[in-house]
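Re: the multi-chain job from yesterday

Posting the exact lines I submitted so nobody has to dig through the queue logs.
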Amino acid sequence: MSTPVQELAPVAGANILTASKKGRFDRYARVRFTNRLFQYLFLLCILALCVVLGLVIFFIGKTGILTFRDISLSDFFLSLDWTPEDGKFGAGAFIINTLLLTGLTLVIAVPISVGMAVLLVEISPMWFKRFVRPVLDLLVGIPSIVYGYLGLTVLIPLIREWTGENLGDGLLAAALVLSLMILPTICRVSDEAIAAVPKKYREAAYALGSTRLQVIMRVVLPAAKRGIVAAIILGMTRAIGETMAVVMVIGNTAQLADSLFTPTAVLTSNIVMQISNVEFDSTWNYALHMMAFLLLLISFLLIVVIRFISKRGGDRA
Amino acid sequence: MSSFTASGKNNRAKLYNQVATGLFYALGIAVLMLIFWLLYTILSKGLPGITLEFLMKVPEEMDTGGGIGTVLFNSFYILILSLLISVPIGVGAGIYMAEYAPANRFTEGLRMCVESLSSVPSIVFGLLGLAIFAEYFQVGLTILGGAVSLAFLNLPMLCRVTEEAIRDVPAELRNAAYALGTTKFQTIRTVVLPVALQAIITGICLVAGRAFGESAVIILTAGLSTSGEMWDFNLFSPGETLAVHLWYVQSEAIVEDASQIADKAAAVLVFVVLFINLVFRIPLWFNNRKLKK
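And the result, structure tokens for all chains:
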């Protein structure tokens, strides 16, 4: 890879050419003007992105903070009692449910997607890879609402049949739907991580007489560990923020999930079910915004963790 | 030569290896079958019942036989508006990150911003749109609000795909352009962008497909109703989209044929998303094949 020359040495030639015609808005001046102009335009674009991020934090945080005018921090985070009609705004149950749901989703999705990634990189022939990757892209393309709809019309009747429960809504249904949704994300990113493991590691292991399984388990997966963890966290951010697919299969009842089949609610589903029915200036609305702010903080935290992991990986390599 | 005799441990390792290979293949084939079964279920339940009339007709509140005309129109209208807003900004931001951004703290901060923004859950963008348009500007739930909020959601992804596409352009091409005495912007406009264009368009299609099926943002910003007229270009009318309509029909509608409408709406939704993704990829495949030869 050669480096672009303009980065190596700033151009001096253009100045010599235009020096004699200073003050005239001729072609050289115009070219240099548009050059400068577009540089600032592009900078403006990226700054606009930052402004949007600022808007998100400002508007959601500003409204969310108002929650604590009326109820205390411990009431909001630790209480499990969410009955807005009586002025009880305990988000504890939603937070725990969100964590439970994400955990259960990862338990289902991680082995399958990492297994798929290993199959694609290490085992399968080229034509299989070429075939599977676009198919996984199809899975990404299906709208989340359609996943929710399928969960509602196909998965929940199946769960009812298998378990004999009356409803079938709940954590298990939501976790299955979410697993399918984050599968391509985790698979794609860990696929890249596994493919980035240097070939010489594998050759060294084979030269010692390892079987392919031993190479995968003892050399490739440990070497790709950081990338796979980053992939899993990326999948986590999707699972935590997903709304519509979850809303349709989780049952939407504000209670702690005490079994896999209890109708329950998570942060996202509770926000979308209730936000349109509340007054702008009510504690209820503030509490919902606070829950959204919480989601935002969790996502940011996960992004920081990913950066930390990949940076340390970069130093080692 | 053949003084090596396989011990029991060797044989076990070989056996495990074969079993594991089989299991990996079984896993892969199971996942593939699941995906195809899903697509088949959605499309086979909905597509056969779709008529032009269904696609053009206004949804009904009470009677059977309602269509999805207005919501389908709103879907495309909001999608196009949001792309008009987000593509110039997102692509511009991507160009800056790939071509101009110096390697320093400030750029690190910008990159952090983009990553954080792409991790923001869609429901939060919905709340933002609600706060800006319904609360601050007091215009209520409108097509404009939906389009702008959706544009916010698209921005980080557009920025990332553009940056990746531009970074893939070989530096030799840039150097050749500089050697002819062009400025940086001329190089980008005449050399870098044309080469990266195809990858950028593919990226835009991915984003468009995602935006077309997005519902959490639209529910909160464009509402659960339409103006009831076909071809309503008014930016300030309520703009229920197809994805939202699917949710509405499934959860709140009282019409008798709600489940058929939902089946058909889901099929149309998936079909359009696949169409957006595939149509623009086909030329890409052909080009790749040409390059390899």
